[in-house]
Amino acid sequence: MIAAPRTGDDVEGPSVHRAPMRSRDDDVSDGPAVERALALGVCGVGGRLDDAPGSIADALAAVDAVYGERMARRLERFVSAAEGVFVWTRDAEGFLWLGRITGPWRYDASAEARDVDLVHVRACDWLDRPVESAAVPAGVHEAFARGGRNWQSITRADAARLTAAVWKSRRGRK
What number of other Cβ atoms are within 10 A of residue 170's Cβ? Predict the structure, then answer.
């Protein structure tokens, strides 16, 4: 069921994704999942399961059975993003954070992960502070302005190049 990972690389560099990290469960408040992700150095999506899957194939099958094919495809897109892709998230105060995926998928079965519905995670190297609004590429602002809870590519033509420039300019700062 899982496709081969995309390279995420093109002429402009690694691809860019919006990672809202908002549960589809309306009983889960917005904000705590992003706080947890930033603190632990992960990026993720929801989809709590009764039994922790031992592999991504098991996770995809279980998510499909519990939540449906559309959610399983969303998880598959998250899992198949290449290491090194850029991700943007927004915290409860509206600040935008930039990170890069650095590891493979794993299922976090901890009570804390279940509480915020951020159980399908990948290691992520986040900048140590949010990016000021004026420095965030317009395509990123547009992606978050549309709303939604899905992990998705930011496809505006200049988003990858401008995001890479933001990363490079802030990575050297301490």
Answer: 15
SS3 assignment, position 54: coil
Rounded CA-CA distance 156/158 in Å is 6
Whole-number pLDDT of residue 7: 38
pTM above 0.70, yes or no: yes
How many CA atoms, within 13 angstroms, populate the side-chain half-sphere of residue 81?
A: 31
SS3 content of the chain, % helix, strand, coil (to 5): 35, 20, 40
Q: Do 126 and 132 form a contact (C-beta atoms < 8 A)?
A: no
* Rounded CA separation 118/161 (Å): 29
Burial class of residue 11 in the structure, from the number of CB atoms within 10 Å of its CB (0-12 exposed, 13-18 middle, 19+ buried): exposed
pLDDT in tens, 24-51: 888 888 899 999 999 999 999 999 999 9
Q: How many CB atoms lie within 10 A of CB 119?
A: 23
Tell me the three state secondary structure of residue 42. Answer: strand
- CA–CA distance, 80 with 95 (Å, rounded to integer): 27
Q: Determine which helix (DSSP H) or strand (DSSP E) holds 97, and give its type and residue range.
A: strand 96-107
* Pair 18, 143: CB distance under 8 Å: yes
- Distance CA(33)–CA(10), nearest Å, equals 31
